[in-house]
Design brief:
Blueprint lengths: L3 H10 L5 H15 L3 H22 L6
Length: 64
């Protein structure tokens, strides 16, 4: 039995930064979870890297 649906549900309940970003992340997660298990790690890592970059760019404390 897999716990992946539980993780997806938890991710969807976190407050979104914006509606557009939330929809995009949800769509990417759905696409990643439809892939074969062996291909998911790289896709999750890519998503995490993209989100980290977006967060760093939007962080007001990093602006000069």
């Amino acid at each position: 039995m897999s716990t992946e649906p539980d993780r997806s549900a938890a991710a969807e309940t976190t407050p979104p930064a914006s509606d557009g970003a939330s929809s995009s992340v949800s769509a990417v997660l759905a696409e990643v979870e439809s892939r074969p298990l062996a291909e998911r790690a790289a896709a999750y890592q890519s998503l995490a890297d993209d989100l980290r970059t977006q967060l760093e760019q939007s962080d007001p404390s990093l602006r000069t």
